[in-house]
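Hey, quick one: can you model this chain's 3D structure?
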Amino acid sequence: MAIEMIGAVYCPLSPRDPEHRLHGLLEQTESRLIFIHHSTKRKAGNTIKAIDMDSVLIDIDVQTNNDFVSLSSKAIAPDGIAYIIFTSGSTGVPKAMREPCSVKLFNLLVNIVPDKCRIWDLYGPAEATIGCTLYLADKTANFDDIPIGKAIPNYQYAVFDEFRQEVSNIQDGELYVGGAGVFSGYLRRDDLTARGLCMIDGERFYRTGDLVRLDSKGLLHYRGRKDHQIKLHGQRIELGEIERCLLDTSISACVVIKWDDDHLIAYVQSSDIDEEQLHEYCQSHLPPHMVPSNFDSHILSIGSFVYQSTLLQHVKLLEKLTKNDINLTQWRTLHIIQGATSFAQERILLDEQVRFTKNVAIYNELDALKVVQGCLSRNRLLTALRSVLTKQTILRTSLVIDNKGGTLKQCITDRHQTFSLAADLTFKNNNELYDIIDQIIIDPNLFDLSSGRSFHCQILRQDSSMRQNEDDEVIPCSDILIVAFHHAVLDQLSCDIFFNELCHAYNNNGIISVDDDSLQYIDYSVYEHEMDMMVSHEFWKSQLQGYNLERRLSLPTDRQRSSNDQRSGVASVAEIHFDDEISRAFLNYASAHQVTPFQLGLATFYTFLFRLTHGDSDICVSGLNANRYKSELENMIGMFVATLPYAIKLNSCWS
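Sure thing. Here's the predicted structure for all 655 residues.
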């Protein structure tokens, strides 16, 4: 209290900590004074001024007539820092292990304490001043799950899902704590502060990272840590549930981790590990997506904590052992200019040749951009475009049929050196503008893939009397920039990558980093052909087993369909937008039933088609998959999208 009354900040230190840790904490807080006593003198050192509390307390000459009124009148800001405490997460040094108060121990305690003794369950992280919820135990009840109770006075809480939407009583959600005791932030760690604190309705809340559930009585129940809950192949998985299942076997300790976004690995401690038995046990007690792919006997530290450094070394060994797994091996640049086209490119080119007429382009991808502030330089834009084409070779790659083998191949060209903007077009009003854009979209001559002309850029000028004296070098706010690609060289995710690099190149006078060893789309295509697709092929073949690929859904139409399979390209796209209320209800329903938004959306679409076709129960729809299954592909421009079939047999008796 005295420290705070003089406007200083109080920071408690543990005398049990080693000297190097204490000195490190003092350096972090930049403390100027430390209070010591007889048992902590040796740990203080000589680097900081210290006051011996023992000598102060026994000093007979100490003055007792201090002006406390004057001292207490020192102005202290309401939002000033009162004290600093260290958590294990901030310092990286874990706290000592203690025996947890388990449900079993709690029930035993209830039965042996005196009748007038009350047992409280107090919950709260250090960032919320230790205690923020409270529960008085009912000693007559036999607990399966001890609640952490309700918020204490001057505190409030909220329970949100991953989209910061409120969850219902039957759902798990992350606990947010607000109120008088919420901390101001981590000392000189603005990044952690921004991650841990947020504003809700003008109040500061701390994201605890703890998962809770609210029962019908308004009591909070602790469900575990959010960071121990992962998502694998679209399914939510609580790693602790897998670990608890394994601990029911003969093993004494275990840790389950997610590796490379594709595997679950269980590290177990046992004198005699039988991987096959553990795998069978998990299969009989857990859903398929929660069964670990690998089991390994690993040295655990005292207290059953895995040494992270050792674990990382083991993971490196795992990567070496699984070098035949395409997801765990790193692709290298092949430095080639010719190679096979990717499967996605083959599909698009075949589709364009067989199903669609040559009079209408169906795979022209176009973006119309308008300068919203200032103006652009035409020459600077051209320089930036050539820089991006230099880096992203797929945008200057030709796609041709090999006369010898009759197969499709791609060849990187030097078109980036001579690339230029298409001739400007003018428009008087929005109607003319939209007509021009529509004609560009369906222009079958916009691209020539055989020569590597798969990228198009053009300026649409607004016709105005005020433009007579304007320089053609300038692209003002009224003009439109058209950027178009052939779908065989670019998918939707690639558009964001392209425009980010274009903006960077433009803002840096055409300078953009080009790494000769960076992976290119042609490298991906070659590696794709080397992959063993047999397992994938058999899986999708089994999904379509029994489905008649020749039959068509009896959908209502507004005109007679042609007898052949050729498409005219004249089609429309219906977009349905949900408001916030429906979106929130949709996500809450998916979370409550442990399904992904995609699964729920697909089920909804199945039901819609079932009603639309008046009970056609055998339905197959196609869906798009980004297909960027490796980290090397995340920032690469190219066509990766895979079209996947989703077949189902519906039963009209289903509710």
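One thing worth noting: The two ends are 66 Å apart (CA to CA).
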